[in-house]
Amino acid sequence: MIELRGVHKSFGNNAVLRGVDLTIPKGESMVIIGGSGTGKSVTLKCVLGLVKPDAGSVLVDGQDVTTADRDAFLARFGMLFQGAALFDSMTVWQNVAFRLLRGSLKKTKSEARDIAIEKLRRVGLKPDVADLYPAELSGGMQKRVGLARAIAADPEIIFFDEPTTGLDPIMAGVINELIREIVVEMGATAMTITHDMTSVRAIADDVAMLHDGVIKWTGRVDQMDSSGDPYLDQFINGRAEGPIAAVR
Amino acid sequence: MVLGAVAGIGRSTLALVAGLGRGVLFMAQTIAAIFSPPFYFREFASALLTIGYLSLPVVGLTAIFTGAALALQIYAGGSRFQAEAVVPSIVAIGMTRELGPVLGGLMVAARVASSIAAEIGTMKVTEQIDALVTLSTNPMRYLTAPRVLAATLTVPILVAVGDSIGIFGGYLVGTGRLGFNSAAYLKNTVDFLEMWDVTSGLIKGAVFGFLIALVGCYFGMNSGRGAQGVGRATKSAVVAASVLILAANYLLTELFFTG
């Protein structure tokens, strides 16, 4: 279970998070939605410990992320980055097996390669891409490799940062479906940030709407359309008019 | 107007001190990362190759032309007071103590500090550094420590090679153009050269190597966003590494050869 309690974070004079309270139950898929610049990425980075909150606490299974043993703590996580963030100096399989080639989860090279190829197959890629470099792949394939890397060490918690950004609608659909399947299959806790509503409906069990640095609404995905919350309604229906001021 | 100027001076002083503080902290973290496990041998080996071995041509070319020009200059200068015979020993001393390490260091700075800053800067803006962290890998240990250690160990070797090639450049000009006898030139070079001339240059090389990789990593890790951010980080890395080399050279020369 992931719990955020009164998390505040400012960068200079810019208060990005102003008291975020959010609970993600074990095995659930939570999607955080909100416009650009509302602090979705900062929230996610706070949970990962990449950004330290100014106030409040982030607990994973009751343990504070800022005081936990980093290596053991991060070994339970997997993350798919917005731009895939593949290491361009390494081949595809070395990227996928990164964690299995070093550190506490180290395996032999051939074992690591076998696992990498199996994970690539799981995300719909053939073994012959294993020896290519990331720059030789299309955006959709890079995302899949990123997904394979995120699940390579069978994490308990997986983060997805804008998983469908920059993909065509069909490829976005494929990635959404893959994420859903993998999360259900692995029984993992998932936290996704996105502003793609198709993605939300495909991936989420629960939805939280972040606006102005606080969670404005949270509930089950099937309650989203009948929430009566003016912020959420404006966002999910993509209306220019409403309580959220659009910068034109 | 006056207040504005004073505020401006204050702001830049604060920025300078803060930058210096960040740099020193980064250096301390790097040294800690070099001496604490896990060690990434593959990264270290690859850094040895790119920083050391692949810098050989540029250092060698710099050295041979420097040694050759130095011989011509000393001959021209020496002839004003009938001291042409000092050419071999001054070329050797000049190359080993000063020009080998400093010019070699500057060329390596141009080649290596820029490429490290650009590579790490690009990794930063494409979230590869964040990805490393989420994959339980400390970027200081994985990226910075191997590069800084490799540069500290290889730049002195580059300097030693550069010294030899520079002296050889002087020898070629001395015997080919200035009428020196080959055996006498070599004898003069060896007789007047002391071990400390060479060792001091190698120590300088190690310090310059450390600074070059450290500065490259620092500016890469602190790169701004986008192509412009990486471009600025690369430029700043080369400028800072070059200035630091020249400043460190003065301080080391002061330390080694005075008092």
Write the layout of secondary structure elements.
The complex is a heterodimer of chains A (248) and B (259).
Chain A: E1 2-11, E2 14-24, E3 29-33, H1 40-48, E4 55-60, E5 63-64, H2 70-74, E6 77-80, H3 92-96, H4 109-122, H5 139-151, E7 157-161, H6 169-186, E8 189-194, H7 197-203, E9 206-211, E10 214-220, H8 230-237
Parallel strand pairs in A: 3-8, 3-9, 6-7, 7-8
Antiparallel strand pairs in A: 1-2, 1-4, 4-5, 9-10
Helix pairs in contact in A: 4-5, 5-6, 6-7
Chain B: H1 2-35, H2 41-52, H3 56-78, H4 87-125, H5 128-134, H6 139-176, H7 182-192, H8 195-221, H9 226-257
Measured as a percent range, the helix fraction of chain A is: 25-40%
Q: Span between N and C termini of chain A?
A: 39 Å
Q: Structurally, how many domains make up the residues of chain A? A: 1
CATH architecture of chain A: 3-Layer(aba) Sandwich
**Strand residues, percent of chain A:** 25-35%
CATH superfamily of chain A: P-loop containing nucleotide triphosphate hydrolases
Number of helices of chain B: 9
Q: Output the radius of gyration of chain A.
A: 18 Å
Taking all residues together, what is the mean pLDDT of chain A?
A: 88
Order of H and E elements of chain A: EEEHEEHEHHHEHEHEEH
The SS-based structural class of chain A is alpha/beta
- Specify the biggest β-sheet of chain B: none
How would you characterize the largest beta sheet of chain A? Answer: 6 strands, mixed
Number of strands of chain B: 0
Distance N to C terminus of chain B: 48 Å
Shape, per Cα inertia axes of chain B:
globular
Protein name (chain A): L-cystine import ATP-binding protein TcyC
EC number (chain A): 3.6.3.-
InterPro entries (chain A): AAA+_ATPase (IPR003593), ABC_transporter-like_ATP-bd (IPR003439), ABC_transporter-like_CS (IPR017871), P-loop_NTPase (IPR027417)
GO molecular function, one term (chain A): ATP hydrolysis activity
